[in-house]
Amino acid sequence: PTSAPYGTWRSPISSSMIARMSVSTEDVLVDPVNSKLHYIQKRPAKNGQNVIVGVADGLDVFGREWNARTAVHEYGGAPAVVHNNIVLFSNLSDGQVYKVDLLNGSTPSRITHKDKYRFADFTCHPRAPNIVVCILEDHTNAAPEDVVNSLVYFNIQSSVDPVTLISGSDFYSTPRFNSDGSLLAWTEWAHPDMPWDGSVEQVFIAAVDIKEANLHLAPFRLPRSRVAGRPSAISAVQPTWFNGNKLLFACDISGYHNPWITTVNEDTQTTHTFQSRALLADQLALDFADPSWWLGGSNIAVLDDSAALFAASRDGRTIFYVVSANGGHSEIPCP
């Protein structure tokens, strides 16, 4: 290094140099049809580009002109999904949704066509995968108080604008279909509450009908029903379907986010009801959910029809529990 008087020497190591070297992995994307894995890699040296990479072949899904990021809720997260070899992702520069067919190596083709729209947290219908539900954040009116969030769906084989399913709350997150696509779960919350401030998020479910490639919520079978959570009082987060009619989530009614389960019952051919309960008979002084700083985070992974893996926090460390549908639980020993 060049010598210089005290206080004037310039180090060859800079913050930008360190940042360029810190390549990191973001979301892990699992194709539910064929179990193929992809992940999102953040590349600071490429102007912060987020690239979707295949695990099996190590190849990038798209070139340097694309960026799988979203600014929904400003903090972003959950910018992509993979279903049956089709990749859908939100491109940061224009906020639009693009499709890539992995089987033919196609370049990204634009699916949505509305300026000042942002999209995130995609979920494909399991029996009609061309129908995709996601969060839409409408910035047509630029003032922050005029930005509108909603849950919408669109058909990736048509050019029709996104269709609103649910609106009225300030924020939405985690739309998830059950295994046969007959039920949809999601979370929502409203100002002044925010997910990192305490108890705000609520879990809802609704029945779903698909007719002539259009998706409808079916209030006559199961109204838009709050499963758990209460504004500024009780938080319920991370809805994850256990199987066709059982929904896992974390709820802090005990003061800690512990595992809960809702069972949806089909009482008649046209009516559904549901029952919610704590999954553990004795609530643990552990949080089985992290604050929702951004979209797409999850502490829950379903192992099979009878058990799920939960990640909890204790003394600043992440620990794992296997929790069964009947309430049994065991900690996995970790170093």
Automatic annotation (TrEMBL):
This is Uncharacterized protein. It comes from Mycena alexandri.
